[in-house]
Amino acid sequence: MEARRGWKNMGVVETIYEDENEHSSTTPSLSPTLSSPPATPAPLHSRVEAWSRAMGRETDVVIHVRGSCFHLHKDPLTPRSDYLKRQLTEASEITLSPPLNITAETFTLVAELCYGIDVVVTPFNVAALRTAAELLEMAAKAGADEVGLIQVTEAYFSRAVAANRDYASIVMRSCWPLLPEAETKGSLVSRCIESLSLMVHGDGVVSCLDGVKTVCPEDFHVIAEAIYRRSSGSHDLLYRIVDLYLKECSGEITEDQKTRICNFIDCTNLSPHLLMHAVQNPRLPLRFIVQAMFIEQLNTRRAVISAADRRQTRKHQPSNEAVTLGAMLQHDAARRDVAQLTAAMEDTRVRMQSLEKQLNGMREHLNGCENRALDSGRSASFRFSSENKVERDQIGSVSSASFRVIPGMGERGGGFSCSPTDESFEWNVRPAEKSSFGRRLMSGLKRALTVSKNSQSDRARGKGDGNRVKQTNEDGHGGSLEKKEDQPFK
């Protein structure tokens, strides 16, 4: 009786079990592996035998659950479970395997309920029973006298778990191996977290999530989405839970999974100290950190503008009263706040610049890799042999020749010179011996150059920097023509 009184104090549903049978209720009934019945028959085993004797019918269905075999009757099961009704209509032997996350112990309690045995609901099995009830579709039927297992577990959860911190912690720990069905079918984890947040605050809720590291990223994504949908205002609790999970599973989660989980956190709904924590949190993805930095800078800017406006308003308000010590202290405190906010804003700007440099460096590295790949492909198609190239200063090159007419010095100066780069030669004619030779040569060259210049005037304008023609004639004693270019002389 002391054991029953202890269960009643914990808020469990009343049961018809005797004290000596409480621990044997989870034993699978009529398993073919048992060579002989146990000394004290389990409630399910006894009820199945009693039902067979009363109806005069042997067991007609076989259900396999996680290595255990249950020989049961079809008639007690199908009215309670729509899922079993569909499955047993086509076959007399079925297997409850994943994705049905139901253990043999849980199915024993479900079968006991189908045979009319009252089930003991505790904080340790309410999550498993609720999940099994949802998967087996054990809702109450309209007009039926029996209460569905979904209604039984929901009533216990609302009465006991939602108002007791210890029960909520126990139920939440029992939900980890039942994910994702425990959340997708009954919203058990998110409801436990919501109940804990109403009873404790901040780190108190996070301290109850010691088993969250066993959850895979896909299941935690389901939990984060459920918490996001149930959050009406602040996202501080969601941020704390996500940060705890990323801390516990830092080496087992990819950046893409981190980004998908963090997308449920709205930085505008974070408190200032958690927003600053997010800016400095190395576990978060880079995109989320940049977003948090922008929001933090925006909030800082608004605070600075608001403080400046209040200061300006107080400055223009006429006051006949003397300034008190309290007003001076408040003024100094406001100035310190503005200075701190300005420093925080500057720190945020520096961090943003650092992140931008990192992004630019990564982008340049990627572009360099792409360019090298393209260049390596082009070099195979556009490579010319060095034997076919005309080098500078070779015969036939741009700078392979020059033509000069060198003037003489004084009255007797004069001369003519033509020298290629590779082979030089000079023709010199003394003006004292042949005085008219220079003038005739200059006249002929002028006429030739005038015709060439008129025919190629368009091209000569574009090459004004490379072509220079100088003509001089002093008293008929001599002249000079100098043409130097990097293109072949035409």
UniProtKB/TrEMBL annotation:
Keywords, in A-Z order: Coiled coil, Ubl conjugation pathway
Coiled-coil intervals: 338-372
Domain BTB: 59-123
Keyword presence, Secreted: no
Gene3D superfamilies: Potassium Channel Kv1.1, Chain A
Compositionally biased residues, Basic and acidic residues: 456-490
Residues covered by region (Disordered): 20-43, 449-490
Pathway(s) served: Protein modification; protein ubiquitination
Family annotation (InterPro entries): BTB/POZ_dom (IPR000210), NPH3/RPT2-like (IPR043454), NPH3_dom (IPR027356), SKP1/BTB/POZ_sf (IPR011333)
Residue ranges annotated for the NPH3 domain, each copy included: 220-299
Domain of life (superkingdom): Eukaryota
Compositional bias annotation for Low complexity: 24-37
Claim: Glycosyltransferase is one of the keywords in the record: no
Similarity-based family: Belongs to the NPH3 family.
Protein name, UniProt field: Uncharacterized protein
Organism: Escallonia herrerae
